[in-house]
């Protein structure tokens, strides 16, 4: 679990990122979760955009993605979800304690 301080730090880092995934009408599928796991391993911090035609609530989508990928939800703002997962091979982000 992330502390408030760590979440603030990650929110600041994520500010300039563009969403690299979009969740639309199909919702969250296994294939999307696999791709998100790969992206998190490479980048550690990603943004996911929830499109307006998505049938599920953005908080539900955030929870499904985080649980599926084993990631932490840093924040949901508007229709954008910020996810963080520490990389095993490619660690770049050093979290404050």
Strand order of the largest sheet: 1-2-4-3
CATH superfamily, by name, is YhbY-like
Which structural class is indicated by helix and strand composition?
A: alpha+beta
Percent of sequence in beta strands? 15-25%
The figure for the number of domains is: 1
* Radius of gyration computed on alpha carbons: 13 Å
Count of strand segments: 4
Q: What's the CATH C level? A: Alpha Beta
- Helix count? 3
- What is the first-to-last residue Cα distance? 12 Å
Q: Report the biggest beta sheet as strand number plus sense, adding barrel if it closes.
A: 4 strands, mixed
Task: Report the principal-axis shape.
Answer: globular
The average pLDDT score comes to 95
> Order of SSEs, N→C?
HEHEHEE
Specify the helix fraction band: 25-40%
The CATH architecture comes to 2-Layer Sandwich
Q: Topology of this structure?
A:
Elements: H1 4-14, E1 21-23, H2 30-43, E2 45-50, H3 58-69, E3 72-77, E4 80-84
Parallel strand pairs: 1-2
Antiparallel strand pairs: 2-4, 3-4
What features would you describe in this structure?
The chain is of the alpha+beta class and 97 residues long. Helices cover 38% and strands 21% of the residues. The relative contact order is 0.25. It has one domain: Translation Initiation Factor IF3 (2-Layer Sandwich). It contains three helices and four strands. The longest helix is centred in the middle third of the chain and has 14 residues, at 30-43. It is globular. The protein has a four-stranded mixed sheet, with helices on both faces. The model has no long low-confidence stretch (mean pLDDT 95). The protein has helices spanning 4-14, 30-43, 58-69, and strands spanning 21-23, 45-50, 72-77, 80-84.
């Amino acid at each position: 679990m992330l502390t408030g301080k760590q979440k603030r730090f990650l929110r600041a880092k994520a500010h300039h990122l563009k969403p690299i995934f979009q969740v639309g009408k199909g919702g969250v599928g296994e294939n999307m979760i696999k791709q998100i796991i790969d992206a998190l391993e490479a980048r550690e911090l990603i943004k996911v955009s929830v499109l307006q035609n998505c049938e599920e609530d953005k908080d539900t989508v955030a929870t499904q993605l985080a649980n599926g990928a084993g990631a932490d939800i840093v924040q949901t703002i508007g229709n954008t979800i910020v996810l963080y997962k520490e990389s095993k091979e490619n660690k770049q982000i050093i979290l404050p304690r």
